[in-house]
Amino acid sequence: MAGSGSLPTGFGELEVLAVGTVLLVEALAGLCLNSLTILSFCKTPELRTPTHLLVLSLALADTGISLNALVAATSSLLRRWPYGSEGCQAHGFQGFVASLASICSSAAIAWGRYHHYCTRSQLAWNTAISLVICVWLSSAFWAALPLLGWGHYDYEPLGTCCTLDYSRVDRNFISFLFTMAFFNFFLPLFITLISYRLMEQKLRKTGHLQVNTTLPARTLLFGWGPYALLYLYATVADVSSISPRLQMVPALIAKTVPTINAINYAVGSEMVHRGIWQCLSPQRSACLLLGPRGGKDAVSVSDTVLMA
Length: 308
Known about the structure:
This protein is mainly α. It has eleven helices and two strands, in the order H-H-H-H-E-E-H-H-H-H-H-H-H. A hairpin with a 6-residue loop joins strand 1 (153-155) and strand 2 (162-164). Residues 284-308 have low confidence and may be disordered.
């Protein structure tokens, strides 16, 4: 199906349409919410803090995932991949960079929250900038390796999107998979779990637990875990024993992560929500923030308020 209009093996006309529609909804939802988040950071001075820079990095990564899903949705609805083999490699690389950056940015936010709540000191700009640079350079490095021969990008079973090829079960694939998974899934998941666990233990003693300490780790585990299981299964068994339709499920689940992250870190955050509201309705937002007597009764937005 990659280069023609014929249906891929294991899929019917209605199923191809359903996958394309689901991808389109996921892409548009993720793009809208994360674009509002990015816009709020650009428009709202109170959000330009080191801590929120980590959330901006996550929003940019999730926007990349949503753009990747939009391309996949378009080709699915066209019932063919119109961009050729080079386009497949570019699509796989772009999606892999965005996915790895999203996972690692979530871990960076977890560490940043632990640093703030448990040390009671503000995150420095140089630390936040260094974290963001490391996240994106590391993601680009690992995503570039399949282009250089360690790993390989190829079409997913539907033939309208590209990802890391797990059908080539050889030493090259297995060595790349386990190394990449350790540094870009299991290690970030461990950092996220430990950071929120330590933060929860400390804040419960004071009775001021103001953050959701379970949703971020669950999002990583349930959003990217199915992909990890599929790849690990491919290393020990014949992946062709899994139906093509079932093989597409992890991709569809992963494309929901940008929307969940936007709701958790932006829409569900009082400060970022104010920023989004200010972008959508500047005059009313100004009234809400300043109050009826202007600056005298102004509500100060402190840098110490983090995302819930």
